[in-house]
Automatic annotation (TrEMBL):
Organism expressing this protein natively: Actinomadura nitritigenes
Pfam short name (any one): 2Fe-2S_thioredx
Region (Disordered): 212-276
Name recorded for this polypeptide: NADH-quinone oxidoreductase subunit NuoE
Family: Belongs to the complex I 24 kDa subunit family.
Entries under InterPro entries matching the protein: NuoE-like, NuoE_dom, NuoE_N, Thioredoxin-like_sf
Composition-biased stretches (Basic and acidic residues): 235-251
Low complexity bias spans: 215-231
Length: 276
């Protein structure tokens, strides 16, 4: 174990706090892995042994979990870990092209870092942000509607120390280690900053409100917990909308640009507020 006595003492204190949140110590393994990752930037063998000691399980059990989830890195990554979504929708919208051009531009591949240690790249699967495809993430913050040019500029800015803002979420991009600490369960107080859901994500809700669409009562009442066989198939017998949704209605307003304010409700600390 090579953690210095001071670091180990601090990690033990944090680990105790995390473990205390769960009925069984081993349930705290995932946040504990983020905790050791926040210290070293990746999950080292020392980190694995620390988690095993704290939880009373074997290093093999910790390794089994930490190698299953791709958010845990076993080699150092960059200060800014950049993900490019190459899942189906993002791929056909340009994600594959972004990945190809970005790897050529930086000279690094999947889960590799640039020599200056500033940026690493990862091919990532669907980030549940398909309405902003193709998307990228930096330390798990979203950058929407990307292009190869924007992607290369983003990475260049990160490497040169220029401030970049995510399309949604916090007003400041934190480092990979800081993001890992938040995931370990130590909030940085930024969770409610910025735009949480962009207009694209809310468009279906808006259309439903405009047209008076409501969820079937059986679904509202609890779906599978309902009393009739129809409860499990809530849409059975539901009338189709008379007016089909027009393409114009789902593409207006145009997609937002990374770093630019996006429409929708302005919340305290949102991008709109900070760009005025
Ligand atoms: S496919 Fe990229 S966010 Fe869903």
């Amino acid at each position: 174990m090579t953690f210095s006595p001071e670091v180990r003492e601090r990690l033990e204190r944090d680990a105790k706090q995390i473990i205390g949140r769960y009925p069984k110590p081993r349930s705290a393994l995932l946040p504990l892995l983020h905790l050791v990752q926040s210290e070293e930037g990746h999950v080292s063998q020392d980190g694995i042994e620390f988690c095993a000691e704290q939880l009373g399980i074997t290093p093999a059990q910790v390794t089994g979990v930490s190698t299953f989830y791709t958010q845990y890195k076993h080699e150092p990554v960059g200060e800014y870990h950049v993900g490019v979504c190459i899942n189906t929708l993002c791929a056909v919208m340009g994600g594959d092209q972004i990945w190809n051009e970005l790897t050529e531009h930086t000279g690094v591949g999947h889960d590799e870092a640039t020599p200056d240690g500033k940026v690493s790249l990862e091919r990532i699967e669907c980030n549940a942000a398909c309405d902003f495809a193709p998307v990228m993430m930096v330390n798990w913050e979203f950058f929407d509607n990307m292009t190869p040019e924007k992607a290369k500029r983003l990475v260049d800015d990160l490497r040169s120390g220029k401030e970049v803002l995510p399309s949604r979420g916090p007003n400041k991009l934190c480092t990979w280690k800081d993001a890992s600490r938040v995931l370990a369960g130590f909030p940085d107080g930024r969770a409610h900053e910025g735009v949480q859901a962009g207009p694209e994500s809310l468009r279906g809700l808006e259309l439903a409100k405009q047209r008076g669409w409501e969820a079937p009562q059986s679904a509202v009442a609890g779906g599978s917990g309902g009393s009739s066989p129809q409860s499990d198939t809530a849409d059975t017998g539901r009338e189709a909308p008379e007016e089909p949704v027009q393409a114009r209605e789902i593409t207006d307003p145009p997609p937002n640009e990374p770093g630019e304010p996006i429409g929708g409700d302005v919340k305290p600390g949102s991008q709109e507020g900070r760009n005025q």
